[in-house]
Design a protein that fits this description.
The structure holds two protein chains of two kinds. Chain A is mainly alpha-helical. Helix content of chain A is 76%, strand content 0%.
Chain lengths: 104, 173
């Protein structure tokens, strides 16, 4: 069988790749993709902890948390992409640095 | 090496490679397609964790909805940053260092934690029953309140998304 830390290591690697993308990408759609990768890493972690520490006792909190993260990810993607499209209409750009209307 | 371990290693190699490609790809549409492959790999990981319901939801919600949304947004914002121009800002090297430090910190902080070597025994049919989760989400002494709050959050977010992306007519004159 697979030990728990394999899953944790995989999730940590995906999270770090996503973090790298969030900080360095210039395209805002790329930033959103990286955020989704990070949320996926969190989901792997939650399900791995649920499976290895709580599944036998019938505790469902881990699974409920994953459902909530799914919903939040969907809401975040919808709002984020709507804002990117709206900003693109006004400024003809999706580069995060150039969307600076609210910069003081 | 058991069959499960080999399957896990292959899956994680695919997931890691495609997430690296989706973060570094030059064209956004390639990035989105690599992202779909990474999501499918994560669905396989969910299935290996015996959370088959979440594997299906992953394919439905992420691959079916979020990835399509991202591909649509990419196609609606095509002319920007296509091929030409740097995909990364100036902080690339610094970020690489920071991310490596964070990863090393995660690994070191997990190292001394006892349940890491935990193995599992296969779940019984009763524990694999998805109906239990459905009942827990609707039972008054279960998770009804978080479930309803998330539903309202999703509704509000979708209405907000429509409002934000709506093209107002009066601006066009």
């Amino acid at each position: 069988m697979i030990p728990l830390y394999w899953y944790l290591l995989l999730a940590a690697l995906i999270f770090c790749i996503g973090l790298f993308g969030v900080i360095t990408r210039r395209n805002s759609v790329g930033i959103l993709i990286s955020i989704e990768l990070m949320l996926n890493a969190a989901n792997i972690n939650l399900l791995a902890f649920w499976r290895y520490l709580y599944a036998e006792t019938g505790d469902l909190r881990g699974q409920v948390f994953v459902i909530i993260i799914f919903v939040v990810a969907a809401a975040e993607a919808a709002v984020g992409l709507a804002m990117i499209i709206s900003a693109y209409r006004q400024k003809q750009t999706v580069v995060a640095n150039e969307i600076d209307t609210m910069k003081g | 090496m058991t069959g499960m371990q080999i399957l896990f290693l292959i899956t994680s190699a695919v997931v890691l490679f495609s997430s690296i490609m989706s973060v570094t790809a030059k064209r956004m549409i390639h990035s989105a397609l690599w992202f779909v492959l990474a999501l499918l790999g994560v669905a396989v990981v969910f299935a290996m964790l015996e959370a088959s319901f979440f594997a299906v939801v992953q394919v439905l919600v992420y691959v079916g909805a979020i990835a399509i949304l991202i591909i649509f947004a990419t196609m609606l914002t095509r002319r920007a940053l296509e091929d030409k121009g740097d995909q990364f800002n100036r902080a690339t090297l610094v970020t690489l260092v920071i991310v490596s430090i964070i990863f090393a910190g995660l690994v070191v902080s997990l190292k001394s934690w006892a349940p890491l070597q935990n193995l599992t025994s296969p779940l019984s049919a009763e524990q694999l029953n998805v109906g239990v989760l459905g009942l827990a989400l609707t039972a008054p002494d279960g998770f009804t309140l978080p479930f309803e709050v998330t539903s309202i959050l999703l509704l509000a977010a979708l209405i907000g998304a429509i409002y934000v992306a709506y093209e107002r007519k009066e601006k066009k004159k």
